[in-house]
Design a protein that fits this description.
Order of helices and strands: HHHEEEH
Helix content: 25-40%
Oligomer: single chain
Strand content: 15-25%
Number of strands: 3
Radius of gyration: 14 Å
Shape: globular
Distance between the termini: 51 Å
Length: 85
């Protein structure tokens, strides 16, 4: 069992890096946003680590919608444009 429990203040660098890499994969440059203006990563990590069930936290950074679970950081795709009538 691999538990990377951190003590002390601050979020896991792994979660921060995973969010940043996901945003960059969507074409968003690091200079285009301030991650900590969009989400409190430390609080996000606490929610993910304290949940005993399935939890998903969604937030938007510069128009890119993300869904974060204990297992992954995923981009949410809107179907609004294709469904508009």
């Amino acid at each position: 069992m691999n538990c990377s429990s951190r003590t002390g203040p601050g979020a896991s660098p792994d979660l921060v890096v995973e969010i940043i890499e996901t945003l960059e994969a969507c074409g968003l440059d690091r200079d285009e946003y301030q991650l900590y203006d969009a989400v409190d990563v430390e609080a996000l990590e606490q929610i993910l680590n304290s949940s005993s069930g399935n939890v998903e936290v969604q937030f938007t950074v510069e128009g890119i919608r993300l869904a974060v679970t204990p297992e992954s950081v995923d981009v949410l795709i809107d179907d609004e444009d294709s469904n508009s009538t």
